[in-house]
Design a protein that fits this description.
The protein is mainly α. It has 9 helices and 2 strands, in the order αααααααββαα. The chain has a two-stranded antiparallel ribbon with strand order 1-2. The chain binds fe (ii) ion (FE2).
Length: 186
């Protein structure tokens, strides 16, 4: 399925985030997810995998576009709302990826697509800081794991993320710890 309009570049993505009233701290988070996503995407391209870097950039930068509208409306699923916003903006391809950044619908393993990279990159960033998966899930459990049910869901998500990590790094000559060495200035 093609987008109805051209995939926006960095400036266009930032304009869209602002149009939907995304606060600065969420924008910085999205930019850091793009730092991680770009590193992974470029590394996979060097290993001859197909990654659409323009689609990946827009998806990383826009993955939390539904977050602030959710806070305002009290809606729960910022991934679903994000997809709806992007569909309204004519960015169907970006919406398809953004809708999977919390719950991945594509196969967890091969072939690696932009949706796997966005899903994983988001799990390596807390606010605008790059962290290990372990730290990210400790943070998620402390923040959202109020009930046994929520903690169970987070455990499933953690295993899913480890599976995606394995699938991504099977294609690369370095390990997940390289992500932690990326520059943290954006
Ligand atoms: Fe995020």
């Amino acid at each position: 399925m093609n987008s109805l309009v051209a995939i926006p570049g960095e400036t266009g993505c930032l304009a869209l985030l602002r149009k939907h009233r995304t606060p600065d701290h969420i924008i910085r988070h999205c930019q850091m997810v793009w730092e991680v996503g770009r590193f992974l995407g470029e590394s996979l391209v060097r290993e001859n995998l197909h990654v659409d870097m323009l689609l990946l950039r827009a998806s990383c930068l826009l993955h939390d576009i539904g977050k602030y509208p959710c806070i305002l409306s009290g809606a729960k699923n910022h991934d679903v709302l994000g997809e709806q916003i992007l569909e309204q903006e004519g960015l169907l391809n970006v919406g398809r990826i953004v809708s999977q950044h919390v719950i991945l619908r594509s196969q967890k393993n091969r072939p690696i697509g932009e949706e796997h990279i966005v899903f994983y990159a988001d799990k390596r960033v807390i606010h605008d800081e790059i962290v290990s998966l372990e730290n990210r899930f400790t943070y998620l459990t402390n923040t959202y794991g109020k009930t046994a049910q929520a903690r169970d869901r987070l455990l499933i998500m953690k295993q899913e993320t480890i599976d995606v990590e394995t699938a991504i790094f099977e294609n690369l000559t370095f390990g997940p710890e390289e992500i932690s060495k990326l520059s943290t200035t954006i």
